[in-house]
Amino acid sequence: MKPAKPSRPDPRTTALHALKLALLEGATWRYEQLVTTAVQAGATDEDIDALVHDALQALFANAEEPLTARALAHLRPPSQFRP
């Protein structure tokens, strides 16, 4: 039996995954660049629309989660905390 070669990730899949992560993180400054990269890698408008729809659904599904002290600590820079 031949040993399996590690498969290289599809550039289109990689670009779409990076775009979805940016959407979930709220990194708006990266959207245009990542959409351009995805289109250059072969993604269609329908692919991007479906990805954005899925990302927004994920954000709304978790929107009702209660905030904890740990989550609040990530929302504020340390310089804004008062002793």
What would you note in describing this structure?
The chain is mainly α and 83 residues long. It is 59% helix and 0% strand. It contains 4 helices and no strands. It has helices at 11-25, 31-40, 45-61, 69-75. Helix 1 (11-25) packs antiparallel against helix 2 (31-40) and helix 1 (11-25) packs parallel to helix 3 (45-61). The longest helix has 17 residues, at 45-61. The radius of gyration is 18 Å and the shape is extended. It starts with 10 loop residues before the first helix and ends in an 8-residue tail after the last helix. The model is unreliable at 79-83 (pLDDT under 50).
Proportion of strand residues: under 5%
* E-strand count: 0
Give the distance, in angstroms, between the N- and C-terminal Cα atoms. Answer: 65 Å
Helix content: 55-70%
The assigned structural class equals: mainly alpha
The Rg value, from CA coordinates, equals 18 Å
